[in-house]
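User: For my dataset I need records formatted as: sequence, then structure tokens, nothing else. Please produce one.
Assistant:
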Amino acid sequence: MTSDPKKLRKLREEVPIVTVHGYKGSVLRKKDGSVVWITAAQAAGVSSPNLTLPSSWIDHDGVHKTQERDDITATHTLKGITVVPYVYEPEIYGNWLKKSRTMGRHSYEFSYDWRRSNIESLGKLIAYLNWISAKHNGVKVQIVAHSMGGLLTMAALNLVPHLVHSVLFAGAPLRGGPGLIPDLHCGTINVLNKDILSPQVLWTFPSIYSISHAGPEEHPEDPTYTGLLDTDAKTPLPMDWFDIEYWKKYKFGILHKYENDQIPENILTHVKNCLSDSKRLRSYILPRKDISYPPITVMACGGTPTPCGMIKDGPKSVNGWDPTTFCSDGDGRVPLSFTLPLPGLPHRYFEISGFSHEYLLNEVRIPSWLDDMLLVCAEQGTTFAPNFNAKL
């Protein structure tokens, strides 16, 4: 799409842009200022701060609950990871954030604690969008959302569409993220550190539960898909990812350590609360017929075998489940087919190659795709937000 350079420059100056990072995408610090995610020593496995969240929750009204806090907070978006100082310092969001500030844009970052409930983070994102829009005289906000940040953004788009100018989703697990579920069961290696996000730590993070598959409505083309295969690696196993009884039956994550009648009550209650929050978030992500959606661009990467579920007692089983054999094409974390928006969400789709999941925002065409959406909104007259209020 082409336009008068002066018009495009004016639109860039007028419409603010905010980047919403994904899982593991912000720097975490303790109250004393020390960084607990992620330093060179932590990446090398020399140091492994305790990132475990409290398993206790505060009941506000018999329905809504919030997890108690620890003394760790997110301070800013993760620019990169220093593995070997001055030798190997891979950029995560750093290159994109630098670029976003050299495009003549008012660029913002939404940084959140990626461990905590995505319902909690969603409320903070909506408040942040309100603040940005008000600061810019009611102009809607253009969003660049990566990975789990795409779930927060899709939910915000459905709840406060009046604040959203347009969206670019990059590797967002809009139909679930089965590539992350094995983390709960087996843990994950972060550069060289296999302890900092072990299963004993991850089970306390509400966020990771909300990335799982929600149900047949997310895969209408294959309603039998559940994310689990029986021992023959062909037959789908029944599964409701938001029902604690299935987690107990299949002994997922921390539950594999216990017989069903011996699971400590604090663990059982915590997982139930995480699943309840996750189900609520997934309900916010489904497209709504009463919304006229703004321009949406979806970017996803293929070329890498990517887990799309687990096989019971498969060839590479860990605690009864094989998390790596059941694969399809993707970016190593999110399969291509899981980045597709559900029917009812108009969008442009770009499949790219050559990037792993964490580096997707280094794609050089992102600025031009954002410009295209600026022009579309200008032509439609939808740059400014109407006077409209919505509650989470």
